[in-house]
Amino acid sequence: MIEKGKMSAFQMAIILYATVLATAILIVPSLTSRIAGRDLWLSPIWASLIGFFTVYVAIQLHKLYPGETIIQYCQHLLGSFPGKVIGFLYLISFVYFCGIILREYAEFIVGNFLTNTPMVVVIGSLIFVCAVAVRGGVEVIGRSAQTFSGLFIFPLLLMILMLLPDWKINNMFPVLEHGIMPSIMGAATPQAWFSEVFLMTFFLPFVTDRVKVRKYGYVTVFVILLTLVITNVTALFVFGKMTPMLVYPVMNAASYVNIADFLEHLEAVVMAVWVAGAFVKINAFYYALVLGTAQWLNLSDYRPLVLPYGILITLFSFWSLPNLQVVAHLLETIIPFNLPLFFTVIPSLLLFISLIRNKWRK
C-alpha cells in the first residue's frame, strides 16, 4: 500500500467538517440569499440531502472495494482505459479545486487584513505548510486537523454568541413569502459544498475504527447543516435585506460585536477560522490529488509528487483566477455543477454499475 499511516473515524469527520465549512461559512450566506432571500436559512436543509446521499454512496463503494479509492475502483468497474480517463479527469479537477480554494483564501486575507502583502507571499506560505503536512501523510493530516479543530469551531461559536444582542428576528418574516421554491433553488450553491464529503473515499482505506465510519459520516453532515443554518440565520438577523450585497457577511457581522466598549471588532476571529479551515481543506484536496496520481500511475510512493503539484497549484491560482470577480463568478455559476458532478453524480453511477454487475453475476 502506498500509504502506511492510519487515522481514526473522528479525525476523518473533523477533516470533512472543516473541508466543507472552511469556505462555506464566509461565502454561502451571501450567494444563497441572492436566490432564497429571507428564506436562506432553509436552503442548507435541502442541500444537506445531497450530503447524506453522498456519504451513503461513498460508504457503499468502500464496502464493495475496501482499501481502494475512486481512482482505483474506476478501473475495476469501467475497464482499464475508461477507468484511467475518469481517473485523469478527477486529478485535473483536484488541481482546479485546489487552485480555487487557494485563491479564495488569498483574496480574503489580502483584501481584508494583509493589504500591503504581495499575494504570492500569502499563497506561497500556505501551500508550503500544506505541502509539509501532505508529505507527512494521512496521520499528520488527521492530527493537524484535530489540533486546529478548536481554533476553527470555538471562535466561530464565540462570535455568534456575542452577536445575539444585534439579532433582529423580524428580518426572518414573512417566512416562505414566495413559496418554498426560492429556498430550494437557493440550495443549489450549498449542495455543492455538501458534496465535498465524498473526499472521505481517500481516507476510508486508512481508518482504523471502520465500524464508526457510517455514524461519523452522517453526524458530520448533520453538524455541517446545523452550522450553516446558524450562520445563515445570523447573517439574516443582523443584516436582513443587505445580506445579498455583502461578499463576506460573517466578516461584516464580526465588526458589529461590541461588549461594553471593551471586546469589539472580532475580525481577527474570522481570520483565525479562515486560516485554520483553509489549511485543513487544502490538505484534504492536496492529499487526494497526490495519492490519486500515485495510484493512477501505479507508483510506490506519492511523496515525490507533493512539491511539483504544489508549484502547479500555485501557478494555477494566478493564471486561471486573475481576481476576486472571476473567483466569485466561478463559485456562483460553475462550482455548483462541477463539485456535485465529480463527488455525487459520477460516484452514484459507479455504484449503480457495480450493483448491476454483482446482480448479473448472481
UniProtKB/TrEMBL annotation:
Protein name: Germination protein
GO biological process, any: spore germination
Compartments (UniProt record): Membrane
Pfam family, one: Spore_permease
Superkingdom of origin: Bacteria
Alphabetical list of InterPro entries matching this protein: Spore_GerAB
Keywords (A to Z) from UniProt: Germination, Membrane, Transmembrane, Transmembrane helix, Transport
Protein family (similarity comment): Belongs to the amino acid-polyamine-organocation (APC) superfamily. Spore germination protein (SGP) (TC 2.A.3.9) family.
Keyword Membrane part of the UniProt annotation: yes
Metal-binding in keyword set: no
Main location: membrane
Gene3D superfamilies in the cross-refs: Amino acid/polyamine transporter I
Gene Ontology, cellular component aspect: membrane
Transmembrane intervals: 12-32, 44-65, 85-102, 108-134, 146-164, 184-204, 216-239, 268-290, 302-321, 333-356
Topology versus the membrane: Multi-pass membrane protein
